[in-house]
Amino acid sequence: MTFIAYFLTRADMLIYFSIFIALFIYWINGIRKSTAKMPPGPIPLPVIGNLNLVDLKRPHESLMQLSEKYGEIFTLHFGPKKMVILAGYKIIKEALVTRAEDFGERAITPIFEILANGHGIILSNGETWKCMRRFTISTLREFGMGKKSVESTIQDELMPLIDSIKSHNGKPFLTHLLIDSAFSNVICSIIFGKRFEYDDPMFEKLIKMLDENTKLVGSPKVMLYDYYPFLGSLLGLHKELQQNIQDLKGLISQCSMNQRLDLDANNITGYIDAYLMKQKQESTKAETHFNEENLLTCVLDLFSAGTETTSVTIRWGILLMMKYPEIQTRVQEEIKIHIEPGQLLTAEDRRKMPYTDAVIHEIQRFCNIIPLNVSHSTPTDVYLRGYLIPKGTEVVPFLTSVLYDKTQWKTPYDFNPNHFLDENGKFVRNDAFMPFSVGRRACVGEALAKMELFLFFTGLLQAFTFYPPPGVSTEDLNLKPGVGFTLVPTPYMTCAKPNY
After folding, report:
1. How far is Cα 8 from Cα 169, in angstroms, rounded to an integer?
2. 171 vs 173: CA distance, rounded Å
3. Ranges of the chain whose pLDDT falls below 50
4. pTM of the predicted model, to two decimals?
5. Is the Cα torsion angle 235, 481, 198, 444 positive or negative in sign?
6. 184, 229, 279, 339: which has the highest count of C-beta atoms within 10 A?
């Protein structure tokens, strides 16, 4: 009996093993058939797809390595989800600019559903996106985007930032909260029509939640929820992000409710007032996109885009000026040539300061703040470079591959302001510089961000020289970014010596 039982067990194992092999071959053949015309890529493994090839803490580094092997267009399986990766300047420009309609939709993903659920500016599609983007651009222009009025707002915010840095009396301090507060206040001035004191409890809470939200969106556990939504829901991988979004919207809703009570058609002070007026005008229409959810999501979009990316860029800028003091000195010398001590810089001064302009651009390129871009999708079946990208496929226009494209930059992995200077020291543009993305989905606040970066960066270097704390050498300074949707510098301490 024992021998027969053993024999049956071995036979059963053989049967099960044969079934497994048959199913595996069928699965592989199905994958190959379904992707026969799609861009090539590594063969996916059962269940995990190609996740064995991707470091979820630093996915941009893995994608750079894969692009070296598979070229400018390839398919990756993130678990059961297929994504098409576009790598390099030429193909991304073709997709997002030349063929903007073919790649103009936002992907619909579990994470994006939590963040926006089809509302707002950044993650919406169709008429909602067109309506909200058009209204937002026109409203931002009304409140000074790219004009003298917003320039004054930025200059006014520079003063309390300088005073806060001076209060440390040359002792080491963290830049994170101070810089975030200054940039958030510029956005607050546009959204709410007023700024906040840096120690205002509501303001501090808003900044911390925005910061936490960015970390969560780029965290491995939330990314796994995006790839395996059913399993992720069972494990609750998304709950922290979901709660954070609800809390943020609750805070914004409270502010908008207060402004609704004080709404004066003759005194529209900011974006929320303008939205509430538009909402009132359209209240008699059977259908309108100016609902409460779009208001909350649009405001959250403006805060996220208008605070995080620009403040992170300046934090990187201070770190890089400590790392390369000779570059900091050269920027300060250019400022002294054109600007009197104590005189405020203006946006027009950028034209006279090519080296400073080149340094700011190189900070943006080198630091690669949004490495993966925000995913796009195809509204119809699309053919690109002879490959089929089926309707609804998530497409990643991989910005790191552009900002570090070896065919476009002499030393892509080095911090080198000469990337933006000609042999005569004049500033030169490079089409491969696209930190704000390009095409119809480019950042709506690009003009505001460029003005902020120039005025804050030059204003800070006019006022201070930044250097490492005692006992820390320039070689000790860490340029490895932290984990998150944006690439933020690892928290660091700096010292600031007043220049006058």
Report:
1. 82
2. 6
3. 1-8, 11, 15-16, 18-19, 22-23, 26-27, 29-30, 32-36
4. 0.90
5. negative
6. 184
